[in-house]
Design goal:
Elements lengths: L8 H6 L6 E5 L3 H11 L5 E5 L2 H10 L8 E5 L7 H9 L12 E5 L4 H9 L4 E4 L4 H13 L1 H9 L8 H7 L4 H27 L3 H18 L2 H15 L3 H23 L9
Parallel strand pairs: 1-2, 1-3, 3-4, 4-5
Helix pairs in contact: 3-4, 9-10, 9-12, 10-11, 11-12
Length: 274
């Protein structure tokens, strides 16, 4: 009889995450039962939703200091599909505590275009149905091992979105020069984000490195410390040819960029600017 210590590495590592909260979003009851069966040996806390809207409602009702750890998201569902739900979660519409929660897509479509659509919607990873035990466990092990980084990003004393004082010092107190730099950044932000999005979708490491480096430089000049930090990690992940880390930091980039633009447009109405 095979003993527990002979299980594959990813199985053993999952044992370290007993009690983690997993939300399974699927409109098919059989799929829910299959998933529960595949995960029962690991003693996770499983939560169920039958569509994207139910998922968002459940996430909003979850205590912010005890958030869901990971979401398994079906793509095609009534009421609200998985793509729309993921986009809303990434925009913070399911609560700030879940904005960066790993979302693993589950879909019967195995085409690369479907994978690209999942990533474009803000999903973290991808599984094909029917779920295979080893693949599911491997994905869970990877994303749970990222959890300390995710927690750190969410709960640590974050770097300021924008250190206006540092930028004013750099431009020798000239508000007019500061405004020129802000306007230049805002004007190019969407184009740069689109370039980075396209590079990530294609998983073109050289292009990701180049665009992230450029945005990092602009963020540094603007004293946008949090975005600079995110782009530094994104650049490093691309240099290391690490697609998982690229996807993780890309998901940090999107809200960080959005937050920065909000601060730059309305600097007096935001708490996370220095």
């Amino acid at each position: 009889i095979e003993q527990a210590d002979t299980l594959p590495t990813h199985n053993a590592s999952l044992a370290n995450f007993k009690g983690e909260k997993i939300l399974v979003v699927d409109d098919n009851e059989i799929n829910h039962e299959v998933t529960a069966g595949l995960l029962e040996d690991f003693h996770f806390q499983l939560f169920r939703a039958n569509n994207g809207q139910q998922a968002i409602d459940l996430l909003l009702a979850t205590p912010q200091d005890q958030p869901i750890s990971l979401i398994l998201m079906d793509c095609q569902m009534p009421v609200m599909d998985g793509y729309t739900a993921s986009e809303k979660i990434r925009r913070g519409e399911a609560g700030n505590a879940h904005q960066h929660t790993p979302i693993i897509a589950m879909t019967a479509n195995a085409m690369s275009s479907d994978r690209d659509r999942c990533l474009s919607a803000g999903m973290s990873d991808y599984l094909s149905k029917p779920l295979q035990p080893s693949e599911l466990e491997e994905k869970l092990a990877h994303w749970f091992q990222q959890k300390p980084s995710i927690k750190q990003e969410n709960q640590q004393d974050q770097l300021p979105t924008w250190d206006k004082g540092a930028l004013l010092t750099r431009v020798k107190g000239r508000e007019d020069r500061l405004q020129i730099l802000v306007d230049l950044y805002v004007a190019s932000a969407q184009e740069n984000s689109d370039k980075l999005s396209a590079a990530v979708e294609a998983m073109n490491f050289e292009r990701i490195n180049s665009v992230a480096h450029s945005i990092k430089g602009s963020a540094a000049n603007l004293s946008a410390l949090n975005l600079q930090h995110v782009c530094q990690h994104l650049e490093s992940a691309a240099k290391s040819l690490n697609s998982k880390e690229v996807l993780f930091w890309w998901q940090q980039f999107q809200p960080s960029q959005q937050e920065l633009l909000s601060v730059l447009v309305n600097p007096g109405h935001h708490k996370n600017s220095a």
